[in-house]
């Protein structure tokens, strides 16, 4: 009874007292943390598989454990050994990887809890834009992560070539995982730039022609960003990041131009708010109208008496 009465008292527009907001925030944070803990436990069980998946591209590219024929193909024969330091190093790394895996595995849960907390305060069109942003942003981020995962071997080959001849290159596992995580985040977030431009166009902040006029500066800016974002100085890694972003930028410009044309066509068909609407002068059949006689007088004017020198009209 109490729960049903509380549901009936909810405002249809999502308004509620501050205490109710704090209680709802606490409940949703609790569900999110519980989902992350469960995901962390699952990640801890498959900890070794996660480590192998993250380090396999670099291990295959520059690891000293790869076949000798592949080592001979390198100009300097340089390779690297993945190492761990300290007695507590493996345990600390396991906790770090498990928590990170828990956040990733529980992302559908905490993203939904975040959406459920924010959505009641949004208008209908804002909800539509937000849902489209989330539905499109996640695949774009995963595409950037996929690109970074396949760029890592090339980047590792370039970096390992700077090792002096005869020296052994030690690759601390925690630093290696930090490098992989940083590249995944940088590539994933950079793929969100076209989506941001599309959302600005849908809200009417930025037009397609203005976006198209920025193409020279955008290409230069993306190239410079790719040069600083990638950990190597080779053109392969830089172009692997810059080329997809530039392509997505032009796709966003094409969408914005089509959306501006559709919006202009719709506004041309709709009447302007400053334009007077046409009046319908067609006579309607209202039946027999009683004629008004000229001799009929109003009750207020029936008498001719004046009050303080004035009649009823004045």
Write a short abstract of this structure.
With 314 residues, this protein is an all-alpha fold. Helices cover 66% and strands 3% of the residues.
User: Looking across the biggest beta sheet, what order are the strands in?
Assistant: 1-2
- State the order of secondary-structure elements, H for helix, E for strand: HHHHEHHHEHHHHH
- Count every helix, treating DSSP H or I runs of 4 or more residues as helices: 12
Helix content: 55-70%
Q: Indicate the low-confidence ranges by residue numbers.
A: 1-8, 68-76
Q: What would the principal axes of the Cα set say about the shape?
A: flat
Taking the alpha carbons of the first and last residues, their distance comes to: 66 Å
Rg, rounded, reads 35 Å
Largest sheet: 2 strands, parallel
How confident is the prediction overall: mean pLDDT? 75
Strand content: under 5%
The helix/strand class is mainly alpha
Organism: Streptomyces echinoruber
Pfam family, one: TatC
GO molecular function: proton motive force dependent protein transmembrane transporter activity
InterPro entries: TatC
Commentary on this structure:
InterPro entries: TatC. It comes from Streptomyces echinoruber. It is a multi-pass membrane protein. It is found in: Cell membrane; Membrane. Keywords: Cell membrane, Membrane, Protein transport, Translocation, Transmembrane, Transmembrane helix, Transport. This protein is an all-alpha fold and 314 residues long. The protein is 66% helix and 3% strand. It has a two-stranded parallel ribbon. The N terminus is likely disordered.
